[in-house]
Amino acid sequence: MQDSQSRLERLFETAHERAWRLAYSLLRESHTAFDCVQQAYLVAAKNPGRIPDGDAWPWFAVVVGFEARNMRRKKRPVTNAEGVQVEKPHGDVPGLAAQREDDSRVLWQVLDSLPQEEREAIVLTHVNGLTHAQASQALGLPEKTVSSQVARGMERLRGKLKSRQDELGAMLAVLPVVEPPGGYEAAAAAWKAAAVSVIPVASGAAIVGGAVMGKYVLVAACVVVALALGVGMVGGYSLKTNAEPVRDFPRQQSEVKSGNIEVPAQDPAPATSPANDSALKQARKERDDARAEADAMKKRSDAMEKERSDVARENERLKAELQPYREAAALRGPTFTFGESGKLEAIREADWKEMAQADAVIQQCLIMIYECGQKGEPVPDQVYIDLQENTEKMRKYEYRTIRKMPTAAEHNGELTHPISMANLLATTLKLAGKPLSQSQVTSINALGEQFDADFAKLRAAYTEKTLRTQKMLDEYLLKDKFRDAMLALLDADQYALVVVPAVFKVAGLDLHDVSLMIIHTSPIITGDTTAKISTKLQDVLRKRYELSAEQEAQLATAIDGWMQDLTPLTPCAKNMARNYTCAQGAQAGAATVRLQTEMLNVLSLTEDQRKKILNDNGFFIPRLVH
Q1: Cα–Cα nearest to 540, from 554, 528, 557, 552
Q2: Out of 269, 389, 476, 511, which could bridge 273 as a Cys pair, Cβ 3.0 to 4.6 Å?
Q3: How does DSSP assign 151-204, residue by residue?
Q4: CA 412, CA 264: separation in Å to the nearest integer?
Q5: For the residues of 84-110, what is the DSSP string, one character each?
């Protein structure tokens, strides 16, 4: 019994402010909320054995929630949405109180505009700190239902207040409510007075502040406490400050009833008896102690509020200080990690900011070399120095990804992979202040996943007899398709930042063109006539595959077919022979596959010669020069 009484005493000391906050938040009307808390304490006092050890608030919060539901069934409360003015909290710092009043007015209005079930779920969880499981008990609903109501309600609040999830949660957690009628001190005394009168103790006695007294004395003391504080609530009715003095209780056998409090009649002690004097002294002492505790709590609250403000200011300062580092980290990290290659550490840990900056310098150097060649001017030494320095930065990525991404190319298969192209493009646009939108990122992710699936399907169909040039051609075309689709998603400003029209899709000049994967292994066959080009190709084939004179004599048909696939040829300046277009590279790749296939079918080859043809990694690219 003593343990139950101790738990009840702890509940009186620790829960009354939180109970009021919960009741008022649910009912939104002071006197109804007052009755709700009082009724909850009566339930606890009648069943002290059910009060949990330790932190009893979660259990008591469920009790308050049940009583609020009962109150609402009896009388639908008026809410802020129905035109009731938001009351200003008492006893706060003036400047802070004005700001809070304005903020809380708006937040309460928006809260009250929500559907009732969503508002109650948010009040229980975000305003009063209950878990979804505890809120489900208080509302009498399944936990999943409460979670759904919270999610929907928070989404509505964010939409109406234009706040982030973390900001909105913080606002709700400190949302002020009005104090109970007469203030927390008077309310706590009245709630305790009502509750202790029904505590089931032996010999008709009750516990007040740890002391045992008769029930008549208890009621007299509680009334005196309430009157001394200026207000009291018994059974939901206010005891006004101008109430008449407390008179002696009747001596006849009868029952004294006041709202929910019932006291069996017995002859009380006279008003002037030592028992009454003791009760009055005890009541005054409890009143003074309560006021002192309230003052101390106010000071602690003010100190905590100042500390909270200091912490909030420090947090904002640290956020501002860390912002440049966060932005730099965001630039260094990848925007895209789609497909199998997106799982590589080399992708996730690469410094994409450094790569994008180096990429831009290399592109400028290539264009300067091209322009100097067009004018017949020497290229400045610094251009070649810059080109070499930044190429080394890019090679760090190549060294970490080589042989880790699927490619048939000997060089630059990794750099021309869609995940490399997409991350370079995204970082370049970020640095230029024109970042990809979320919808663009989503669309490019989808393109990357599609590339990964298509490329895997192609590779799965290859056999040991599949020409390497065929594999390279398939990869070449698939990557070019991805780049075209990705660029088509950009707006005009973004497109102008990443595409230089004069060198777009020109081998050796457009650093992002897929021709980068063939330029180092594909022979350029030049001549001022097609006949000379055919003759040169025959000589290249003889040396490349170590053909005999007899085998070389059988090449005519294959070479004629290769030339027919590529004509008519577009003439170019001799110094531009290596700068063919992406489309010309694809055309040369298809002609090379046909040439090699015919050689395998027509020539009597040794096993070593056959392997050389099957594993050849270059396209034969004709260039008609003048």
Answers
A1: 552
A2: 269
A3: HHHHHHHHHHHT--HHHHHHHHHT---PPPTTHHHHHHHHHHHHHHTT---GGG
A4: 96
A5: PPPPPPSS--HHHHHHHHHHHHHHHHH
Chain-centroid distance, C-alpha 123: 23
Which residues share a beta bridge with 625?
572
- Assigned token pair, 356: 């994008």
Claim: this prediction has a pTM higher than 0.85: no
Pairing, β 232-234 against β 261-263: unpaired
Residue 124 carries which DSSP code? I
Pairing mode, if any, of strands 232-234 and 211-214?
A: unpaired
Cα within 13 Å of Cα(580), Cβ side: 31
Q: Which two tokens stand for residue 77?
A: 């409360």
Instruction: Report domain extents, the chain.
Output: 2-173, 341-505, 524-624
Decide if 126 contacts 172 (C-beta within 8 A).
yes
Q: If 0-12 CB within 10 Å is exposed, 13-18 middle and 19+ buried, where does residue 188 land?
A: buried
Query: Domain 2-173 class?
Result: mainly alpha
pLDDT digits (tens, 9 = 90+) for 448-487: 999 999 999 999 999 999 999 999 999 999 999 999 999 9
